[in-house]
Amino acid sequence: MTGDLPLALRGQSLSMLPERAVYWTEAATLVVADTHWGKTATFRAAGLPVPRGTTAEGLARLDAALDRTGASRLLVLGDLLHAREGRAPEMLRMIADWRERRSSLDVVLVRGNHDRHAGDPPPELRIDCREGPLLEPPFSFDHYQRPVEGTYLLSGHVHPSVRLAGRGRQRARLPCFWFRPHVAILPAFGGFTGSADVSPTPADRLFVVADRMVVEIGLQS
Amino acid sequence: MTARRKPHPLPPQLRSWFEARGWTPFEYQHRVWHAYREGRSGLVHAATGTGKTLAAWLGPLIEGLEKEERPAPRRRAAPPLRVLWITPLRALAADTAEALAQPLEATGLPWIIETRTGDTAPAVRARQAKRLPTALLTTPESLSLLLTRDDSADLFRDLRLVVVDEWHELMGTKRGVQVELALARLRAFQRGLLTWGLSATLGNLEEAARTLVGSADIPFEIVQGVEPKQVVVDALIPPRIEIFPWAGHLGTQMLPQVVDAIEEGSSAIVFTNTRSQTEIWYQAILGARPDWAGTIALHHGSLDRANRAWVEAGLRSGALRCVVATSSLDLGVDFSPVDRVLQVGSPKGAARLLQRAGRSGHRPGAVSRVTCVPTLVLELVEVAAARDAIEAGAIESRLPVDRPLDVLVQHVVTVALGGGFVPEELLAELRSTRAYAELRDDEWAWVLDFVTRGGEALQAYPEYSRVIERDGRYVVEDREVARRHRMAIGTIVDDASITVQYLGGGRLGSVEEAFIARLKQGDRFIFAGKPLEFVRVRDMKAWVRRAKSSKGAIPRWLGSRLPLSTELAAALRHRLEEAERGIYRGPEMEAVRPILDVQARWSAIPAADELLIESVRSREGRHLFFFPFEGRLVHEGLAALFAYRIARLQPITFTMAANDWGFELLSPEPAPIEEAISAGLLDPAHLLDDIPASLNATEMARRQFREIARVAGLVFPGYPRSGKSARQLQASSGLFFDVFQRYDPENRLYSQAHREVLERQLESSRIGRTLERLIDAKPLLTQPERTPPFAFPLLVDRTRERVSSEALSDRVRRMQLSLERAAG
Prior knowledge:
The structure holds 2 protein chains of 2 kinds. Chain A is of the alpha/beta class. Chain A contains 4 helices and 16 strands. The interface between A and B is large, with 51 and 56 residues.
């Protein structure tokens, strides 16, 4: 049993993966948002000692999702790199090695606010960098929430999370996939990123990442 | 103590200064002046406001006068820095400066006294940057900031004496360690430096003095000042005690009697345990006696300096009839004693209650009296217990903190900035302090690696730069690193706080950012005794306007909840054991008897050799209440331990609450308590494995890491006008904790969080010893139909820890979106 959760949307089959990614079956495309690669390197460059390992973990998680789904294309919804100061040679080398192992994979980046400051990834990574929104009916893809008439938008930027409560005064705060009527917001993929609590309404659907499972949270009261 | 020669006579200028006030110096003051003149360091302990300030200050003045007898110095300017006065509260610095100025004026010495704290005006700071005054009053944080200056060795060249005021407040905290480190630095600059501490009476004065002078072979003297001959502890007894447990919550029901008590004298202080209680009682008293408007005031640490100064002046001049205060008034603010001292809520500790009592009648021989006002009927038992502890002389100790590496990391960067260091020399200096006397070579190597390479040598980060080596000296060259370090220094205690200001301009004080973060536009809250309406946050300030109605939320400050002291917990158990045997001594116990009867009828009062466990059902699930009566710190640890041990028997999730009397484990489904008891729930064996494992199962270490991350300079409090580059360096301490846990679990700051939680639970509060007591106890398991009085306060406690042996996804399936708005 995998922890993936299928979702039919606009006649297409999506799957939410506990790796914090969405798989679009018909287009064989894996979608992630906000990887923030090089964030820990940015900190280290400023004299803040954050351990290494988040990039390797992120790539391993990406591999797991790609292998399980058999995706032929990876779509990153912005904030691929965290900052210019974080373009550490070692981190870029790790990504280059990964790219070599995944040479047949198409990789597309829809630029986000951090990418503007950090700059595009080195050309040898062969990442197709585009300005959003990207139109692929019935979907559109963007870093921000800029709806495109007639499409359903998948986006990032927000790093959404929610707080849950249960009997026995239990509480939890978890990253989530937030599907609104015309736009979905993906959780941040990066391992060293914060999150912002969001407030879904009954018209939305909400899926939280609980360790290795994606679980839907009912919003009807 | 050393043999005493005839004391130096007081110089005529000071003798007439005393006479003009109708005062005679106390004998103990003479002893301190003498010891200082003989070149000895020491510690003075006495009740607040009994002349400790003069005891420490007049030594240097006498010395100055004796030097002035020689030909007058050629230069007219004030002498350079000679006396450094460290105070725990900014608010105290200004008051103390005033107190020091008066006798100085009488001597005619050309000295200058100034303060340097976060409140100091930029112009004064700029002047001080060129030249420090003869006597400087400052806080530990501001002193550390001075040590970051690259000319710090020159600044302190003529320093002769450091006075550490309210040392009992600092000792046992990381700020106290910061003071120890700063003192070691100053001694390195100035070999013959003398140190005098001023303290309230503690259970471990010898250790307090030794910690202050450092672990080197510096001789010191402990001088006992004036203590009140007699202390009376009594309580306001509720006229009618309802027997239902929820009626035990008195809130402000005792208001009429409090007002009567205030009216009995011409001045009173009403102490509370929290800032929010201060606001509540201030409003309540004013509501009962509107005619007292203008003569009643509020005093707590979050208020703006100008407000506090006005209150303190009012107390001194007698213009105020009543001040409602937190511990901000426990400390040195000097004013004549008040007629009545009231303590709202549990006294929590004998030393603390004594100190508060000392605010009344502290002339030699006078009776000091403190009247306790219960907010819960059961607190009356704690009042009786506090009286027992005081009569038995069971005064609490302050245990020093042992080698916290976060404070060391901060200090090492400070020294690197302040002129740089050679590792071997700095290590010797560090080991001269009590806190780092046992610093191991591997720990020191780790700290050096951490500040120079970002981690242990094997996994050093080439892009990292904080402290760098230049020809054998370790220095900071990066100006951005220097700037961030200076900004981070002030943050050992303060959570990020934010100024509260009227749209029209007036500043009211500051509250924790997390509280403000929960407010939305139009929300009302009470602060500084005024109903306010929240407008917006901008420029690191919370802008408010006056609200028309006083109906609103009271600020829920995050400040830690003070636990019952070990001494008081023991006295409390003794009182309850008496009650179990039908003995009710004194008015408090008589008053609380009906409630104890209900407890006995619905459940039980445990005998000395019993552990009471109550199992109660409610809509929320199954509650297990345990009552070891050991104080909150022990109970927090025991709750985690018991939850962990029970959760090993079956998949279950507990949330826990703890208070001074006991703790609660709450689960949606029944917990196998009887099976757990026979499986060794109370067994002290395997504690060394079970306790760390159980604490890891909670978020305690993660929370403890917040402070560590701040002190070690990983996260920054509010970053005014921060540019884009600063925003890219934003991460919460929780993120740091997670990333250390996963990728660098050997990191010492990460393990320090665990060590601090463990030490808090194990050493300072001794779970092990409690279990030794409980292993022989008979578990007394009751199943009351309603929540009995002992358990009721736990039932309503909203602060919870969690231990779970279920998969997160299984738990989440039973959960719903929280309706609570995001809280910090």
